Amino acid sequence: MALEGGIRDQRVDSVLEVSGEIPTTGTFVPFGDVIKKFSWSADASIEARRGIGGVDPLGHDTGLETHSAEISYLLQGTIAADTPLYEAFVRNCDDELASRTIVQREKHCTGGVLSNGVRMYTVLDGAKPASAKIPGDPGQAGPIEVVISYTAEKGREYEINQPATAAVVCVESTNVLDEGGTITIEADSGTQEAITIGGTGSVTFLTIDAMELTAETLGNITLLDGTDAGATLATIYGSAAYDDTEGDLGVPVIPATGARTASLGYGYEKFLGDEITYSGGDLAYEINSVELSVDNSVEAKPRHNKRAQRIVEGNRTIQLTATVMGEDEHYDQVTRHLQTTEADIVWTLTSSTLTVSNAVLVTVGDKSVEEGGAYLAFDSVFEGEGILMV
């Protein structure tokens, strides 16, 4: 049996939502061809139920859920308008953030109930970018590694055991009221079949890569190998498993007229050789490192009928932090700071140009020289009034 870990076969991609749903034309696209990190944190706000007359809990209750994730990957190609990184920095005309459904898959070729492999999935719905960072380090040999942090409405993990041989799928529920509902099964090849709950499909599946309900159910839905007496391949929990709030929908399938992009195939972005200007001139004599960041002031707000909270964006803060040095660099930087000078900062990458408009030097590093110090390097933090990414 293989242990869960980063050296297993991984896939991390996402699809842009429209009005909180995956559109029929939605395309799943990887964040990058090289994912450095995927991290998900879930909190069910569990509280102990206590009363007078004893020291131990009488039970435990579940509250509202909070879900956060962090994804870092190597930057490739143009930061285009339909990419997750662009969406982290740029709002729509109503100053709202785009939301995505994010799916992480870990594939094991062995193990599982039928000893033919098992796949674990993390599905995040309604994920909005709370913050993002684009660092630049001329001493780094590899490409730029960007980081996006998300806050999501809902997060679930699923496990799909693979059939031992090609077989039809039987679908059952622990609640008869769910019978007649529909679930769609998808194979690695993209083959799909919609199966009625309480029935058995007609398409044989050698692999199962997704399973998505049309609507939430009351009971737990089980996918069975071949017949209702077959091994349980997967389970999707209904609302009864969550104190009669909302049930789960499963791992999303490729939309009707949508697609899945296997890889980006673009060239990687490196910082060495990039140009960063301030008001058309040099930002500094020498830049040891730089980081462009955004904080979207994202909050999770409770609502009365769901455990999943509404994700709301607030003020946007765009900052560029540069570690600089030079012959009279502190003089130049502190003068900008004390005079509240405004100017555009333009970072020209190989495939994109990032313009932080009307940037002000809000924090300048201390002038601190010590015995033996061969140079003075310090941080300058600029804050912009907007950003343009082309």
In short:
By secondary structure, this protein is mainly β. 4% of the residues lie in helices and 45% in strands.
Question: How would you summarize the topology of this molecule?
Answer:
Layout: E1 9-16, E2 27-30, E3 35-43, E4 47-49, E5 59-61, E6 66-74, H1 84-89, E7 100-108, E8 118-136, E9 145-152, E10 154-161, E11 169-173, E12 182-186, E13 192-196, E14 210-213, E15 221-225, E16 232-236, E17 250-251, E18 259-260, E19 275-278, E20 281-282, E21 286-295, E22 299-301, E23 310-312, E24 317-325, H2 329-338, E25 342-348, E26 353-364, E27 378-384, E28 386-389
Parallel strand pairs: 2-18
Antiparallel strand pairs: 1-2, 1-7, 3-6, 4-5, 6-9, 7-8, 8-9, 8-10, 8-21, 11-15, 12-13, 12-14, 14-17, 15-16, 19-20, 19-25, 21-24, 22-23, 24-27, 25-26, 26-27, 26-28
Order of helices and strands: EEEEEEHEEEEEEEEEEEEEEEEEEHEEEE
**Which structural category fits the helices and strands?**
mainly beta
- What is the number of helical segments per DSSP (H or I, 4+ residues)? 2
The global form is elongated
Written account of the structure:
- It is built from two helices and 28 strands.
- The chain is mainly β and 390 residues long.
- It has a domain at 275-389: Elongation Factor Tu (Ef-tu), domain 3 (Beta Barrel), CATH 2.40.30.
- The strands form five sheets. The protein has a 17-stranded mixed sheet that branches. It has a four-stranded antiparallel sheet with strand order 13-12-14-17, with no helix packed on it. Strands 11-15-16 form a three-stranded antiparallel sheet, with no helix packed on it.
- It is elongated and about 80 Å long.
- The two termini are 47 Å apart.
